[in-house]
Amino acid sequence: MAHESGEVWQKFAVALADMARDLLAQDSVQATLDRIVEHATVLINGCDEAGILTVRRGEVSALAATSDVVRMADRIQQDLREGPCFDAVTDRQQLYAIEDLRQPHERWSSFAPEMRKLGMGSMMGFLLFTDEDELGALNVYSHEPRTFDESAQTAGWILASHAAVAFSAARTHQQLGHALETRHEIGEAMGILMERHGLSEDDAFKVLKKASQDHNIKLREIARRICETGEKPT
């Protein structure tokens, strides 16, 4: 029995390593999120559906989902302001679970009946976080009640931990890319102002900054307009 259990966890470890490489290979934050929920349905025993949401100032945003049913579940959590995943984010708890959605539930008395209507029998919510960021929650669902045993909870927690790191890395990479783009556009716009309008480097940057402040428009957008038109902003 112990031998069989060891083989199961060995296979899980191999699959988890494959997932980590796959997530880091994605070229965007959204692609990373989409792959996380797809991997959840494969790596967590009994998981039929999965999704990722964030809760900011009480507003739920669905970032990724394996189906429209999951998106509906996210909207229900927002409308009712209750549910395992909502609480995982707002209360900063690593795991919330409902073993049987077909039974009355004291904590989520309004949410559980709505999930039954969607055909869900049980679910878990894992906080996605790193030391620097609290990112959201990974939701996993089963159509059957009492599906997720201790091993499934452990697998979900491990997957969520790896997913949070990949999510954070993808977001940092995207932010860096945007920063480099912005720097390039601002430099190009300053070059246009210096060449066509006889401005010094300092004066060209002051023109960009003043136009941004006067019109309440991001510096990057002002720079883009100059690059497109060649005109000095008024």
Describe the protein.
- With 234 residues, the protein is of the alpha+beta class.
- It folds into two domains: 166 residues, Beta-Lactamase, CATH 3.30.450.40; 54 residues, Orthogonal Bundle (Arc Repressor Mutant, subunit A), CATH 1.10.10.
- It is built from eight helices and five strands.
- It is elongated and about 75 Å long.
- This is GAF and ANTAR domain-containing protein.
Low-confidence stretches: none
Q: C-alpha Rg, in Å?
A: 24 Å
Number of helices: 8
Q: Note the run of SSEs as H and E.
A: HHEEHHEHEEHHH
Highest-level CATH class of the largest domain:
Alpha Beta
**In total, how many beta strands?**
5
At the fourth level of CATH, the homologous superfamily of the largest domain is GAF domain
Q: Which architecture name of the largest domain does CATH use?
A: 2-Layer Sandwich
Number of domains: 2
Keywords:
234 residues, alpha+beta, Beta-Lactamase, Arc Repressor Mutant, subunit A, five-stranded antiparallel β-sheet, 8 helices, elongated, WH-like_DNA-bd_sf
Task: Please provide a brief summary of the model.
This protein is 60% helix and 15% strand.
Topology:
Elements: H1 2-25, H2 29-43, E1 49-56, E2 59-65, H3 68-80, H4 84-90, E3 95-98, H5 111-117, E4 122-129, E5 134-142, H6 150-197, H7 201-215, H8 219-229
Antiparallel strand pairs: 1-2, 1-5, 3-4, 4-5
Helix pairs in contact: 1-2, 1-6, 2-6, 6-7, 6-8, 7-8
Keywords: Kinase, Transcription, Transcription regulation, Transferase
Organism: Streptomyces siamensis
InterPro entries: ANTAR, CheY-like_superfamily, GAF, GAF-like_dom_sf, GAF_ANTAR, WH-like_DNA-bd_sf
